[in-house]
Amino acid sequence: MFNFLKKIFPSKHEKDVKELLPVVEEINEHYKELASLTDDELRAKTAEFRELIRSNTQEHEDKIEELRSKLTNDISHDERKEIYDELEKTENERDDIIEDTLNEILPQAFAVVKDTCRRLCGKEWTAAGQRVQWEMIPFDVQLIGGMVLHQGKIAEMATGEGKTLVGTLPQFLNALPGKGVHIITVNDYLAKRDSEWMGEIFKFHGLTVGVILNDMDNDKRREAYACDIVYGTNNEFGFDYLRDNMVVDKKFMVQRGHNFAIVDEVDSVLIDEARTPLIISGAVEMSEHKFDEMNPRVKRLVDAQKSLIAKYVGEAEAIINKGEAASKDEIHAAGVALLRAHRGFPKNKKLLKLFSEPSNKTLMQQTEIEFLRDNSKRMPEIDDVMYFAIDEKAHSIDLTEKGREFLTSSQEDKDFFVLPDMGTEIAQIENDDTLSETDKIAKKDALGELYSLRSDRIHTIQQLLRAYSLYENDVEYVIQDNKIMIVDEFTGRVLPGRRYSEGLHQAIEAKEGVHVEKDTQTLATITLQNYFRLYKKLAGMTGTAETEAGEFLDIYKLDVVVIPTNRDCIRDDVNDVVYKTKREKYNAVIAEIEEMKKIGRPVLVGTTSVEVSETLSRMLKRKQVAHEVLNAKQHQREAQIIQNAGLKSAVTIATNMAGRGTDIKLGPGVGDLGGLHIIGTERHEARRIDRQLRGRAGRQGDPGSSKFFLSLEDDLMRLFGSERISRVMEKLGIEEGEAIEHSMITSSVERAQKKVEENNFGIRKRLLEYDNVMNQQREVIYDRRRQALMGERIKDEIFDMAGSYVEKTVQKYYPEGDYNGLRDEIQRTFTVLMDVSPEEFQKLGEKGLDDYIMKLVHENYSRKEEKYGVDLIAQIERFAMLTVIDDKWKEHLREMDDLKEGINFRAYGQKDPLIEYKKDGFGLFVQMLEDISKDVINFVFKFTTQEQKVEAPVQRQRLPQRMTTIKQSADGVGMKMTPEQSDNMQSQPNDTKKIPIKVGPKVGRNDPCPCGSGKKYKNCHGKEA
Question: DSSP state, 787?
């Protein structure tokens, strides 16, 4: 009946595929016609396609070139805006024409690629150091996948369906306009392999292929980006974008735009890795972290908590062992003890053993419900007797009053770890009539310093507690070469160069006793979500996107289309089996492996952590079962291990590395024995990771099977598993070593996974909301920077800044009639002399003074252009803009880091941290724009008063020096000078004071100010630096 209804009401994916079937027939008709052509005649088709695109867009390209050339001229601010609007409109029209033309030629272009594949069959070449023989011609379902990618959608294709080949179809088509196509892979190996493996198709037609690898220099990167088709990882593309927005000359840029991107393993890149933003950072010159200082205190606190939890677990166990003899009050006390142990140290091994009995976990959950009533009104009764409370689901830790007292030594203030109530304290200061205005300001500054100090201290403690309680070695990270290396929980691979943010990485370093790296300062940052939004068209392919379709549509506006397989999948997916304890589960896994090995079937055992893979390996060694282990510690042998994983009787234990980007081919005779058998040792929190593991078996119609072994001690079952499973096991009286197996159990586990996926989506969306604040600011800054970098004349923008500055200056002095003050500031800033009588000063009014001063400024600037030449002045304008923007943006990012680090504490004051972050971030951004305007004006007008010949500084890339420049006063010119230039300046009247050479140690941002005020340097004289 259900199948009958499906035929009447097909699914969305079936409708999507059905719409494309007529185009598939058209492609195959063209394919037949191409068979009679010679190689040269086939290549000529590509030239025809390119010429058609060029002729259709020539008029718009000429207009775009004309508009861009106008931007290099001396034009007004309003004219520039009109040109930008016209330029955007013309570019959009051109892009629409290109897209229409590509849609028109799609059947022919896809047929050309298909026929090229046919002609390459039997030929050999080297790809990533391995000899490969070409033997692929796109199937009809692959043609459908290629069309879906061209439409800017996600094509979900099963393992072994040839996603890499599918990608060549839209790559060829979209490379024809010459705007560039980017292919994003999950690692450097795949980028190099695919570029050399698939590259022969494109080279056959004269298209160029490049690859971006981690160890390439800028010249090689620029050469690769200039190619028609470019392969590389998301990290390389993202970091190159950030670096391009840090250069001082456009000749140092490597990328040439963001036209069309296809993301391979799109769910891994756009969802799993999207939680971690791309950050270019530099070490803070004087790092003052307190992790080493606080680590011994926190370690003692954690040890004290462990002892306390052991006591509670012992008390609960003693009552539980009484059985029916225990009174009602004793059972309630046992429930309270279990709840305290669960909130105090949820991974306590003795506690987990108790929870393997479903009745014990049910008792804890019932007690928890009791204390959570009325908005958790009674939960402090549970938490306050402990040193800290852990919410494992929210991944958070709260330090209790008892914990604060434990951390505070007898010589320290009892409020050593307590944040002052800023609102109340400031109100008391304001209402204290005994204080003068100066005293009130001093007290407010002191209060701010106290809040900052304690906030840093509490942040350090919380991160150390998270490191000790929630992050385990060989699970979330591994230690290699005395460094903490993060292990990706979704792929099982080590993430080189990645660090946990907000001090967590340093906390883990302190916990493990390795060298704690210096605190870093963000120089440039962007999330992957916002980076991939830069592309005009984005597409992706993977084997598991359907479960995250909502997130793809919500964040990236990407639709998911499930492509049917070329051959039906005959893999047997057995129901999950659930045991009480992990020990029982692991013993059952070993027994399953031995049984399969006797049959001769290869086995792939999937684990969720390095620790579990090594535990199973030790158990197999004791049984003398030959096997291979693939995890983050043996990632160098990945290709060799995967190559042998499909051979007869092979046993491979792998973390999630084996579920992503690997293709296990069956050895001779293995198919007749039943194919590859997949054993999952735990359900991952994301359903698609389990689907990836299952997908290693049953490729291209091969036989295979999969089976997941679970226990009530697994993290997913502990945190989100249904109570129904516990109750069923209790009622059935399951003995040790026995398991339950039913489709309802499998469905219940999947519902638990959905809960986690929804929670993780919320976390990623929240991260994106925070980054959107930065992204809006980033777009403004990068747009201003790029205008200067690309050689546009920005004189109008400088005069716009000058006009705003003059207006504010007049508003400052005119109401008080301070003519001398106004005259002196205008002379200092613009080096022009106001000559008006007091009567004229009053008569002109604010608007008249604005116009009068701007007339003087324009006349002075015109004289300088005549004197030094327009070209030199234009270079000075660009250099001033780039230098000041870089300096101020770097400082702004530091301020935003500081703001974000402590913003969550405002939730204690009943304020939404995100709204507070947006409000304060906007205030900081407006202040930065004002500082940029002021410094650019000072730079340009002061510099042009010097009469020596100056070489164009913009031609030298002195990035590190430029980025660490510190101006000692607002009067500084802002450029390094030769001794001769310095001598020339000394002969000028009203010369600028030279910056003294400092030989003492540099004062850090958070060090006490040398003036003796007691404030931090950044809040005192550091404000002027």
Answer: H
DSSP per residue over 370-412, as a string? Answer: HHHHHHHTTHHHHHTTSSEEEETTTTEEEE-HHHHHHHS-TTS
Tell me the average pLDDT across 361-374.
84
CA distance 296 to 302: 10
CB distance 767 to 527 below 8 Å:
yes
- Predicted confidence at residue 128, as pLDDT, reads 84
Task: Give 964: exposed, middle or buried? Use CB within 10 Å, 0-12, 13-18, 19+.
Answer: exposed
- Contacts of residue 877, Cβ cutoff 8 Å, sequence gap at least 6: 788, 793, 794, 795, 798, 940
Residue 295 phi/psi, 5-degree rounding, is -55, -45
pLDDT at 720: 62
Q: What is the DSSP string of 527-575?
A: -HHHHHTTSSEEEEEES--GGGHHHIIIII---EEEPPPSS----EEPP
Of 539, 493, 485, the C-alpha closest to 661 is: 493
Sign of CA dihedral 265, 271, 272, 274: positive
Amino acid at the residue 32: K
Burial 992-1019 (b: 16+ CB within 10 A, else e): eeeeeeeeeeebbbbeebeeebebbbbb
Q: How many CB atoms lie within 10 A of CB 402?
A: 18
CB 77 within 8 A of CB 71: no
Tokens 């028609």 correspond to 228
- In degrees and rounded to multiples of 5, residue 396 shows phi and psi of -130, 160
* Three-state secondary-structure class, residue 524: strand
Q: Are 94 and 58 in contact (CB under 8 A)?
A: no
Report DSSP state, residue 252. Answer: G
Instruction: Give 1000's DSSP letter.
Output: S
SS3 996: coil
| Predicted model pTM | 0.70
Grade residue 489 by pLDDT with cuts at 50, 70 and 90.
low
Q: How far apart are CA 765 and CA 649, in angstroms?
A: 45
Across the range 532-539, mean pLDDT stands at 93
pLDDT given at position 974: 29
Structure tokens at 50: 């390119």
Q: How far apart are CA 424 and CA 452, in angstroms?
A: 16
